[in-house]
Design goal:
With 157 residues, this protein is mainly α. It has six helices and two strands. The protein has a two-stranded antiparallel ribbon with strand order 1-2.
Length: 157
C-alpha cells in the first residue's frame, strides 16, 4: 500500500502559536525592555519571522501535484526554506546536508567530533571581538591530547 501524504499543520505547532501570540508585543516593547542588554533588533529578524509564519500555510501559496498514472492530486504548501528558526525546514536541511556529508565528504576512516562551547558570560566579548575567535579555537585545539605524529588522539581507543 502506498504511503499516504499527510500535510503539515503549521498553525497547530506550539512555536507558531507562541510567536503569533507575542510577536507584535515583543516588537513594540523591544526598544524599552531588551535593547540595552541584547542590542538593536537586526533587520533580517522581521523577514525570518514573517517567512516562518507563512511556512507550510496553504493560504500563503502552494503547488498542485498530480499523479500522471492515477490522476490523484494534492497540494504542497510553499516553505520558508529557512534554517535555525523554522524547525521543519531546519530539520529537512540538516538531513539533506548530513546525508551528503556522509556519502560525499567523509572518508571511511575513524574520526571523532569535538564540540567546544563558549560560556554564556563570555559570549558578548566574542560577539563584539570576532578576531579573538581564532585565538580561542587555537587554544581549544591545543588542549586535545596529541599522538606521536602530532595528530589528535582518539580518547576512545
Amino acid at each position: 500500500m502506498p504511503a499516504v501524504y499527510h500535510p503539515r499543520r503549521p498553525r497547530a505547532s506550539p512555536l507558531w502559536q507562541i510567536v503569533t501570540a507575542v510577536w507584535d508585543t515583543f516588537v513594540a516593547t523591544y526598544e524599552k525592555v531588551h535593547r540595552a542588554a541584547m542590542g538593536p533588533l537586526r533587520a533580517n529578524v522581521f523577514a525570518v519571522v514573517g517567512a516562518f509564519l507563512r511556512c507550510g500555510d496553504l493560504a500563503s501559496g502552494f503547488l498542485r501535484l498530480r499523479c500522471p498514472d492515477c490522476g490523484n492530486e494534492h497540494l504542497l504548501a510553499f516553505t520558508c526554506k529557512g534554517r535555525h528558526f523554522c524547525p521543519s525546514c531546519h530539520q529537512r536541511r540538516v538531513r539533506h546536508l548530513s546525508a551528503w556529508i556522509a556519502t560525499s565528504v567523509c572518508h571511511e576512516v575513524p574520526h571523532r567530533q569535538f564540540v567546544f562551547t563558549i560560556p554564556r558570560v563570555l559570549r558578548g566579548i566574542f560577539r563584539k571581538r570576532r578576531d579573538l575567535l581564532h585565538l580561542l579555537f587555537q587554544t581549544a585545539t591545543d588542549t586535545l591530547p596529541k599522538t606521536q605524529d602530532g595528530k589528535t588522539q582518539d580518547s576512545r581507543q
